[in-house]
Amino acid sequence: MTTFTGKIKEVVKNDRTYILIIGVALVLRILWAIAVPVIPVSDSNAYDTFALNLATGQGYGWERGSPTAYWPPGTSFVYAIFYWLFGHSYLPIIVFNLLLTAVIIWVAMRLAETWFNRRIAIITGIILALWPSQIQFTTVLASELLFTALVLVGLFLWFNERFTLRSRALGVAVVLAAASYVRPTALLIPILLLFFRAVRTREIFKNLTATLVMFVVMALLIAPWSIRNTLVFGQFTTISTNSGSVFWMGNNPESTGGYMPLPPEVKGMNEAQRDDYLKSVAVSHIKEKPILFIRRCLIRLVKTHERESIGVAWNEKGLVKRYGNWILLPLKIINQLYWLAVLGLALIGIVLLGKQQGWFIIITHPTVLLWGYFAAVHAVIIAQDRYHFPSIPMIAILAALTLTSWLDRRRKVFKKRSS
């Protein structure tokens, strides 16, 4: 007990600045939660409904006897636990979002310190603490914060050299399996982790073995839900039945690059059949017009990063109910200015990273590769500003690199003038 207490005191002493930053972040989010009521819309309404049905024993679906797998179940599973314990109240979810915020900022700072230095870590934490959309998501029922936190924890475990490679592989597999239940885009992250370590260590066999262990453990943990889906829909189905549908939305003759209603010809199909059919339609369209596909990918890449207003949009009903419509535009302007400023700093950070550590680092550094991975996934399917949310910690770290370099140059100029 004495040893444990001593370790806690040591952590508090060494990480006082980190704790202060997280404290500021939590205060800002608590004030937002007090100011804005929770009114679920869009995907938030789906998570809310599924969680309530799970908590009341009606199964995972819109209603009893109509099971679904269109939305990955992880977020609703977590909310269902809260509803089962505390009733249909959004307060536990707000508290949970505050906890996720603390995890995201803490781990992002730790990773920044591991990859760069403590100054960059502190600025990373400040950027994340003040990020408007991240504050606004405190009152949103969504997968973004949970998914981001799980991915960051997986990265932190992987880069923690105090543990053996085998134990890290097992721990990361459990975390990424949980992340895959929230968003299936986590399924391929072990390949990125393999790449990170292979570049650094050149231990091909050990890295391949660790990656294989991760995939096997993840498969075992995902298998129960996959079996459920396969029994429900009569054909092999993994986590969700929306990949083909979303892929089709971004790759059909009428696509605008974003969400669109499903075509009438899929009426009568079950979710798995519909998903396979729409995926085949999208693939055929890409094969028929490959140049259009490439052009659309570039457009979607831009659209995913051109704005950041989803935090206001998904809080719109609560904001309008309490303050009226006038509040929406000022908040969107604040969001957009902050986003464009940090995005610009992060892009400069990539250039600085190449200059400081070599241009090969641009394609191998975790900050750039993780951001690139999530950006590429949604460039291929559909675009929306919330799809860059998992990249936000990496973007913040790169922006902090730019700000630190600028501060260093300013300090040097000041010293020269003083002397």
Rounded Rg = 22 Å
Which range does the strand content fall in? Answer: under 5%
Taking the sheet with the most strands, its summary is: none
Oligomer: single chain
Question: What coarse outline follows from CA principal-axis ratios?
Answer: globular
Number of strands: 0
Cα separation of the termini: 54 Å
Mean pLDDT: 92
Q: Number of helical segments? A: 20
Class computed from helices, strands and strand pairing: mainly alpha
Question: What is the helical fraction, as a range of percent?
Answer: over 70%
**Low-confidence parts lasting 5 or more residues at pLDDT below 50?**
none
SSE sequence, one letter per element = HHHHHHHHHHHHHHHHHHHH
What does this entry look like structurally?
The structure is a single chain. This protein has 419 residues and is mainly α. Among the domains are: 160-237, no CATH class; 241-288, no CATH class. Helix content is 73%, strand content 0%. The chain has helices at 2-14, 16-35, 43-55, 74-86, 91-115, 118-129, 132-136, 144-158, 165-182, 189-201, 204-233, 243-250, 271-288, 290-305, 310-313, 316-323, 328-357, 361-364, 366-380, 392-418.
